[in-house]
Queue: 4 jobs
Job 1
Amino acid sequence: MKNIVLGILAHVDSGKTTLSESMLYKCKSIRKLGRVDNGDTSLDTNEIEKARGITVFSKQAKLSFKDTNLYLLDTPGHIDFSAEMERTLSVLDYAILVISGIDGIQNHTETLWNLLNVYKIPTFIFVNKMDLAISDKERVFNQLKTTFSNYCIDFSNLNLSMEEIAMTDDAVMEKFLETETISDSDISFLIKERNIFPCIFGSALKEQGVDDLLSIIDKYTIQPTYSSEFGAKVYKISHDEQGGRLTFLKVTGGNLKPKDNITIIDKNGEKSVEKINQIRVYTGEKFSSEQVVESGTICAVTGLVKTYSGQGLGVESNLEKKLSQPIFTYKVNILDKTDAFTTLAKFRILEQEDPQLNIIWNEQLAQIHVSLMGEIQLEVLKYIFKERFGIDIDFDHGNVVYKETIKNTVEGIGHFEPLRHYAEVHLLLEKGKQGSGLVFDSICSEDKLDKNWQRLILTHLAEKTHIGVLTGSPITDMKITLVSGKAHIKHTEGGDFRQATYRAVRQGLMQAENILLEPWYDFTITVPTENIGRVMTDIQKLSGNFDAPTMNGDTSILKGDIPVIELNNYKQEFINFTRGKGRMNCVFKGYFECHNTAQIISEIGYDAESDVENTADSVFCPHASATVVKWYDVKEKMHLESFLKPKVETTLPVITQNQVREYRSVLEQDKELLKIFEQTYGKIKTDRHNVFNTHKNLDNNNSIKNVGYDQDYLLVDGYNIIFAWDDLKKIAEFDIDAARHKLINILCNYQGFKRCEIILVFDAYKVKGNVGSIEKHHNITVVYTKEAETADMYIEKVTQKIAKNYRVRVATSDNMEQMIILGHGAMRLSARNFKQEVDQIEKAIREIIQ
């Protein structure tokens, strides 16, 4: 007999579990036909499944029909449990997609169809509930052809569909034209290749069409070819009633027996050998113990403790396809006297069973946060904790899960050198493709760092959820490459590289241009045409995008994308104004740049500098005493050469003649700017020919350039710059007013050349009589802040307002201020770099005009 692993999938309430029950009953795997509404089906055995009438956990059953052993996997239908369903897809040979004959293709059905396409799973379609008077075969069948595939074929009367089947393949068509028939093997091939999708119409509750479905599956399925070497795919981790750990897997090569030794490679890449104790083949809660299972068998084994969902054993590789990502996060409240650490340990057990249950432990606040797909999962977790662990828990109101990434390439450096410890790590952080997650690599020479240390660094990169510096959210869509590292022959231990690696990631992020990401949905909204205008207006207000609506009789269809948080807040309002007639189908699209970054950063209030658990600072030991070096000073102390060597400009790019003429013209026409210029640089020579004759400078090593920053606005923190520049600082020691006027004149000259808008901001409390004033000093704006308002507060406020529409740079040496303005979308310009730029421009002006 052939072994076929068959999954059954559906939108919730389509009758999937009822169909599973009917198939089991027809194959005599169960004696009594259970019903979902009675809570006595053989597969939905969990109390919460009985109470809610939905499948929460994937179940397995073995049934035999004619020449086929079917291993039936009943998957959850609710979108909250998509990850459980997706893990099951990785082991399927074929699938049954159940469609309601009343509702047709529903919200989640399209998602399931797309997933079946991604995993390339041959699919049978069972249209259920056809016994009800309001079901409509013609309408649903047309919907299947237009929405899914034109090659959804009605197998109710196969003879009438032969020509339609033949049209799907040229070779089959040639045979059909000769013989006027199609062989069973050709039909089996077309189904296997997803060229056709057999459709069966019936009623699972009334057992109508179930025999036809089983016969078609028996007749037209092909057992995969398996290797003789042992291989297996792990798709689920669970525990039995006695608390024993169960690893559910599909044998994909060779066979498996009790007492077999299995080589396990865990998530950290560590290899170990574990022994199979028992092999079980389940049908619902009942199981049979097996002495050997062959390829193509679904079973559960005991004795393995380091397995995880998606893992490949033997010749099988790990599952690489992306599963549904949890997009909401909730804080756990412990309602009884159980301590947080005990509760966390129980969550870790559940996290092993469901990898998408992302547990976050906040050590500073001793809080547990959990990332989930939706609120029904919360109910399930509360039930599991009470029934399985005896702990009462609840959850705070959920928030969407934000993530962070970077725009540019940076080198992160981590140095960890307390007394008798040593490690230095250099990492290259690069922006990755959207949706790529985190990718780790090494290009470090083994001459610099031994291969074993390199492997350890890569392990440390993969073992931790690294968080960003804007909101403390997990980072994603980046490639992190080990480029250099150093160990000490006597003092380096494994934990030293963990510390250095974590600090290198963090130090890189602190330098980078960071982007806050949020989850987005693709949506399809169907409403009465009278409501479409309201919907379009609402979607625009909610920062969504959409294509032109399409009309279909009295209804209109709108497709687009929108931030998850906005649409979730809109759903109830949508139901109310459409009076329940509107339909909204949402599919997770991915993570994209946050539509209200500044607001979210402000609301979360994360301070990267004060997060000691995720420090970007390094530890050096210059004089036999450990010293903490701030992240922005690490490059000056590091022991290895930088991978991204700073580009030292030996020449200045050429200023064009047009730029020279323009600047000279400005000086000639603007007597006040000319006066300021001559106060700074001395009298301008009047030899016009020499001023414009710059050809001799174009190719020599002393050629001049405009630095090339093409910004609209430059905001300058006045006193910060004064005390950061040595020449202005010396003046300020004797006369702060003189230093301020000197900076104003420098910036007037700078603006005359750069032609950008400059806003120079001073703290008003340091200037008598100028509180809260804004002055136009020739070609720049000088702002003296209001009482109790600092310059950085003013700059932050202005940046937030104008960075959306203009390109903005902020010149300051305040590291915290630099981080804040980055979050608002502006570019940071350190006091040192600004000084270099001003000096370059001054040099250009002197060489050309004098």
Job 2
Amino acid sequence: MGLISFENGVFLLDTDATSYRMLINEHGHLEHIYYGARIAGCSLEALRYKRTIGRGSQVLTCPEDKTYCLDDVPLEWSGIGRGDYRNSPAEILMPDGSFTCDFAYESHAIRSGAVAPDGLPGAYGSGAETLVITLKERASEVRLRLYYTIYPETNVITRRTVLQNGGDGELMIRKLMSMMIDLPEREYVLTSFDGDWISEAQRHDRPVQYGIYVNESTTGASSNRHNAGILLSEKYASEDGGLVFGFNLIYSGNHHSAVEKAPNGMVRVMNGISPHCFMYRLKPGEEFETPEAVLSCSSGGFNGLSSNFHRFVNEHIVRGDWKGKERPVLINSWEACFFQYRQGKLLRLARRAKKLGVELFVLDDGWFGARNSDTAGLGDYEVNRKKLQSGLVGFSKKLGDMGLKFGLWFEPEAVNPDSRLYREHPEYAIKLPNREPALGRNQLVLDLCNPAVRDYIVDNVSKILDEANVAYVKWDMNRHLSDMYSPFCSNGEFFHRYTLGLYEILDRIFSPRPHILLEGCSSGGNRFDLGMLCFCQQIWASDNTDPIERLKIQRGLSYLYPLSTMGAHVSQAPHQQTLRNTPLATRFNVAAFGCLGYELDLRELTRQERRDVARQIEFYKRYRRVFQFGSFYRFDGTRDNACCFEAANGTVAVAALFQTLADAAPPNDILPVKGLDAEAVYRVWTREQRVYIGRFGSLIRHLIPLRLKADGWILRLLNRNYTLKDGEQRLEARGDQLMGGLRLNRQYIGTGYDKELRLWSDFGSHMYIFEKEVNGA
């Protein structure tokens, strides 16, 4: 039996660890039966929702069956006007002028592999199988095709909907979800990942109560306000136990997820394109296709669900030459230079970076046109020769001669009014004919619904990529959409057609150039979604590089996306976003759980700091595959002011414990550990990190016999050239013992210094390596 089978009117869909069951019921509706841990077969008597007697106020969908009301049936799809008063997955103005529709089973087919969407990105890969169920509207020639694709090894099912107008009249679509499912009520907790600029993906939990909760973006992109991914968990689910469902969407535009607890003991979940300002006219003979929804579940808690999503993204979403390939360590010029640089300054930064072990130099904003601030130049592609005397081609060659790859920043979707492009083609920008357009970051957005605009972007970006031997692109977009209007589509289609235009541009540029590593960015994580990951192998998680804030951001994203997709940089402290001053070691320890980069002026580092950065990069390269593609674990039960991450691959595990604000006389810490071989012996040690003398200030008087000023030249000199060992710990132990929790050396408690003491204070951290001994070695 394959992944999908059909027996006695029941569809059976099975992944390695989960099962999904649905029934063509006696009235032709597609009834949901079960979704959860894997089961054998399907006992309808045990699993089917019972309709023993009707309720007093029910509207009978089929008058001959006194117990059958759609409002009381768990469904895979529902309509309007036939007795189901729960949230509807569709609002379609039918040819008869009403919204009433009733879709019933007509046929089905089982196909090998995934069936690619038309014009939209989707999941792909071997080992998949697809079920296509066709539903027909009872009173018209309108049909729905529901696609279910099984990816067995990742325990993921994708779903999407195609609406076909087979009649003579037009349909007006006001809402059409990608999927809908009715689950039995289990006192669920709904988890969403919300935020803002520099505060993305903050986890928020709330109990699912009666009514409808909506998680939605209306900014024109998937947005930093509400990520498209949501989780639904049993009340007492933890990181490692309990049933957890996950729902996401392969889409980068306005999205909509809704969770409704109904009075009948069911919870309805749906997701798809946001109905905000959406009206799509479907002519006779046409089809409308929704983005692909992604579903998974795990009885192994949040970590179990995340493991499913991580493997799915790495295997079935990310593509190109960088699929499964270790990402390079980069330096980005932005925080070191901003807009103010010349070629010589950039090359000096590159030479310093190369000496420290950096592999890729990324030239950020400011290289084109009159781009000396964010007020001018966007939309133009002429290289500013005052800044780059050798041009991009010559500059790239100079980097190559150093042994560095060349990366380049673009913001192709935007235009400054003060630009050559806008002066020559003001019609390329999105704006209403009778209104003054609203600016965001001194810029307008280009109309990607316009074929000429798409050609302009593709031609200019492609030319630069080929001529300058660009190995990496950072694709930025720094504002939300406004003044939604295009002469190339109706207003109700604008948001969706903009997104389709973006996908066409990305496909035309990067599909012929699979060797380029593409990092998405939108003022940080404003467009961190599965749609972009079909083109971008990684996404800049946030403009906030403060590691204490990044702990929350990267943790939130990790519920839905693997570490291989998260851009994470070490920056200068105090941090631009918070003015918080954090240790260099902690900045690295957080950024290592992602795709590592540096974004600071290397001239300002002391000799000891440069040594530390070189050691950090050397360490990261050694364990890069574990960080980027290993199994990632979060932990319950750490102190309120602590957080623990771990990445492991069976042979090696790297765990880090982070502290936010220090307590006086802190308790002894126990480091939780997972993913080890219980019977193997592991060598365990701390990553070497150092404490700078300046950290002690005037307290240094207690360690040396001399009376020195805390801000005097002697201590400043010592701070630049001398450091102390911090928290060294080495041991050997069996995996089963270590997974009981590693007892750590003590923190500083105000009584002195020892090289094994963890000198943490606020924002301290350590990283611990567990290497499996092979053949007693």
Job 3
Amino acid sequence: MNVVVVESPTKAKTINKYLGSNYKVFASSGHVRDLSAKGGSVLPDDDFAMKWDIDNASEERLSKIAKAVKESDSLILATDPDREGEAISWHVLDVLQKKKILKGKKIKRVVFNAITKKAVLDAMLNPREIDTDLVDAYLARRALDYLVGFTLSPILWHKLPGARSAGRVQSVALRLICNRESEIERFVREDYWSVSVDLKTPRDNIFTARLISFEGRRFGKLDIKTEEEAQEISAMLERAVFRIQSIESKPIKRNPAPPFTTSTLQQAASSRLNFSASHTMEIAQRLYEGVDLGGETIGLITYMRTDGVQMTSEAIDSTRKAIARTFGNNYLPEKPRFHLTKAKNAQEAHEAIRPTDFSCTPDNVRRFLDSDQFRLYELIWKQTIASQMQPANIERTTIKIHAQNNGAIACLYATGSVIRFDGFLAVYIDTCKDGAIEDEENSRLPEMHVNEDLRQNKITVSKHTTEPLPRYSEATLIKKLEELGIGRPSTYTSILSTLRDRKYVSIEKRRLTPEPEGRVVTAFLENFFNRYVEYDFTADLEKKLDLISDGKLAWKDVLRDFWQHFSASVTDINHLRITNVLDMLNEVLAPIVFPARGDNSDPRLCPLCHIGKLSLKLSRYGAFVGCSNYPECKYIHQLGNNKEEQADKPTILGQNPQTGEDIIILTGRFGHYVQCGKNKEARRASIPKSWKIADIDLQKALALLSLPREIGIHSETGKVITSSIGRYGPYLNHNGQYANLESIDEVFTVGINRAIMLLGEKQKKGNRRSTSAAVTLAKLGEHPKGGKVSVQDGRYGPYVKWNKINATLPKYKDPTSVTLEEALALIKAKADKIGTTKTAAKKTATEKKAS
């Protein structure tokens, strides 16, 4: 009997079917051990010795594998064909060697790029040893990430209270996002005008030409700065004579793009399918691990973590046959195409992402896939097929037109493109219509001839405004990271999820927006650890890690060189005082924290007391702006990006009719609130998030400040019933018994009869919610170890559930937006915590027993 170790339970089931009864396939369920989540797991002074921890779940899996190996003839390590897969095999082997159960056993390492019967059986016939260079690269990367995270994070916690942790690559990605935001804020918009003319040919066909020069002056896109100048040109063209001066047609060949890599697949899925990076990888994983096609489980695509664009000769041959079969021989190039990657520092160790069998067309497998699986598979299939097809032959025509009016001369251009042979574009039927590429610049032009006169049909003068570069989306950030040579296919998704989980960025309309905490952390790192968030430095370090993979650098030499300089920088920063940090942040972030005021007054003068100076303050909840005149003045407002919600000065709604004190709207760390008076004992009440600040008037403010509202006396108990707004929404309170209200407005309108009815219904239900099954909000899919993962709404709020493990969702997380990947991370953290607690309890019990 032979024991085979793969990574996921799904793969294990499929591969066991391929190999037969003489093999027993086990799943490691990812990494079986990791560096301990505490300091001292990487020891620079002990030649970078590393201490590994095994959680309870992994210990159980390893025990099952060890038991089976004892009774087997050989151990076959068949984890994924990349650095992480190699590391998992190395970890499993190292653990089993320490158990001393491998004596006399054959040890084999096999890799396959696709989960098909042929690929798996071929791999079994071609075993190799574990690639120590890949393992060394993994060890170096893991040690670097650990050393940076566990060295920088305590500094952040001490110097920037409220900050979370800092990662080696995540900090650089965050810097990209924050720097783009600063560019947007600094951008000065400019108005410009364009002039275009709709012209009619002698055959009464209409087309559009745009102005490119007037009276010998050639115009760029932004050169017409005023409406007066645009109208002057329009007036001249109104009575001008238009004549075609030249017609020039040029053939253009448009070549197909290569097959997908991890990053290009994520980018294409984002732009064409609106998928997030994590969702794309989740679906790709399922397509790779196998889909049941009517009784037979087959992996539909090759391994999905790769930066290579090449395919095997067999795959290219299959692609060409599919092209000839589907589109005809005239779409097939004479020779196969060989693509080269453009990514910086790419490691072309693996094939591109492609279908495993080109006879499995999207239409053939559609009934076996859900909607998202089908769309992603169709995208991969089309891209792979197109990559080996003929180029598209496009004829681009440029027509130059002269306009004359009483000696004044203007020149206009019209351009159009026609597809003469669609080539690879035939795969994307929706790309072209009637042989023309339809867009504003490249529409089909009507029949025209040189020296023909044209008639003016309409003149359009349009005003435009320059726009800054857009914020990064997940796809464009991944593209930028790849261009800079930062990160690798297996890390892009985790980089993005880490930034979100730490609340350093948020996603608004599919764009990444830096949160205040993220901007503060970036400003700190740029000013005190600039070398380690430089793009070139990070890319160079990635290059060194790749050289370790190639066996050209020793991994510990790279660590020594890094640690020598990094530890010295840390020593210098440890002596820094928090006041120095705040002074730097006040200066660097001044345009954001203290924006200019319309009345040209000092933006740092406190708008409440008019005495103190505004400054950034740090707390366990993060950064905020406060007054130097504290505690006499308690003015604070949140550091944020939404300027409409940041009051530069308090809004006075009126006076309290009983005390004459001002009723004010203020902004604090936890949002907007109303306040009565300015002294230390001033009464405050939070403004509900569902209320618009612009709609808050004196009456609503007084109502909020009056809570809890007394509704009346309960007819049975004689106790008072009140209504108010709490952390979880509007509610009733009767002698310690609570019942929910439907809306905020009902807090101020509910009557005694309805209140008694709601309390009675709650009493009849008793504690039903705590004893009944929680409500399922979303079903996320299968756990790698088997079993459904779901999002539940329980008595104490939303949580993710798998088997007997319940993991509470962070308060800021929308339960409906949770992905399977995020849920698995929460479940793992909870399982590790449970395991640690049980281990500690056992240890305590043992110690007590021994004593």
Job 4
Amino acid sequence: MPTDHDALFRHVFAQPEHAASLLRSVLPAAVSAAVDWRSLQLTAGTSVDEGLRDRHADLLFTARLAGAPALLYVLVEHKSADEPLAAFQLLRYVVRAFDRWLAEHPGATGLPPIVPILVHHGPKPWASARSVADLVALAGVPGAAAAALRPLQPDLRFLLDDLAATPEEELAGREASVLHRLSLLLLQFLPTAAPADPEAVVERWRELFQAVWAHPDGRAAIYALFSYLALRLDVEPERFVAAGARIHEGARQVGKSLADRLHEQGFQAGIAQGEARGEARGAARGKADALLTILRARFGEVPAALAVQIRASSPDALDDLLARAATAPTLAAVFA
């Protein structure tokens, strides 16, 4: 199931402007200079593996590199740095990206270059293997045999954007689009924000929030960022009105729109919960009526106090009583 991290990352970096900003910040300078950024496109479907969606967000881009096609694959790791097989997982996803490319180019006799990129955020810096070769266990193999085996092993290296190892000031000052910077700051540093309140979060990175608001798509961007905060912070919806006002008077309305949506969601959830409780009560009432009918048919009038007890019983208890009422020799035996 997609996470709130996924929603924020996909909203921001599925847009070519911010995707290019992210890729430029990670790619080697020579590769970045060779990419025709005007040709950058997000592939249809975005994810190369539906199984990723419960733990990661991934985006696959195509671009022209020195006039030829190239693939740029970005995987976001949301969890801890203890992912020992991450390099192998990336290898699998890269193969699937190549499979997709070959399916779309049936006459191809070669493969385009691909750049796998892992963006990691979490409480600790990345500490796992950076290549598939590092995962292959050759330590116990005799030297000559290990030397012969090593070049035969599959390998894949990836570029790592380790947000957990990047100081907040460095990430905030990165040469990148402002929404790119602010989104990554929220992914990495929101868990440590204190107090956990949207107005305090805005104040912490107020200049960046104001710069996002000034962008032509600022209203939609602020709404997306506030929606992410709403999923991560347990606060009253009205707090987003105050947070919006800290950015700009116009952003106050964005906060109000979100607050109204959150109230409506809460109202609908309350209705659903009430309906569920009503259905449960209705089912219990029906079982109680059925039990009383059986008891009266078999044993005569049911004492009033016992009828009250029956109507207060849970659906599971009533199921048990119904089963016993069919065969019990006496009324007392039903409740023994």
